[in-house]
Amino acid sequence: MNNYMDNVTVFNHPLINHKITHLCDVNTNTKEFREIVSELAMLMGYEAFRDIKTKDVMIKAPLSSFMSPVIDDKITIVPILRAGLGMVDGLVALFPNAKIGHIGLYRDEKTLEPHEYYCKLPKDTTDGQVIVVDPALATGGSAAAAITFIKERGFKRIKLLSLIAAPEGIKRVCETHPDVKVYVAHYADAPLNERGYIVTAFGDAGDRIFGTK
Questions:
Q1: Buried b (16+ CB within 10 A) or exposed e, 80-113
Q2: What is the CATH number of domain 3-50+74-210?
């Protein structure tokens, strides 16, 4: 792995590895796939939000009063449509007050390059932390483009969460956006096929989440 991996966190936990295995299994049905995607997003969220800002407040406990930390940061979750929607609930379970933006991109089947067709982001959280979510980081084109669009709208503290990532995708995002931290549940060190899919992954995440295969 090259030095562009310095901003990448690859999880290596037995529970996460176990869930990734079931996610990639062709026999995992739509309900199970959807649940596992959400569970993985929640597990990854604990680490991704490790540097979240907090402040101390005075609370009254049963036996005494004392200062204790609470979250003091604005959180925006931005799924890349449509597959990224599957990761939102897991993160919202951690941060119920998070704002949710949406970015819609479609990929040219010949060039594999992304094109924006929709972008709606909150306007009052630009100074907060933004978590871009997309289950698969294959070529990296969609994720890199989405982050560019988010930056153009004034956001600066940006992270990317993907369940499975290929070397090409990680390299593209990290070289295009060296200031963005990337969190990956599984590093798929395998070639992409002619359609730009990771061959050792779960196929089209959107189709498997929404049952449209």
A1: bbbbbbbbbbbbbebbeebbbbbbbbebeeeeee
A2: 3.40.50.2020
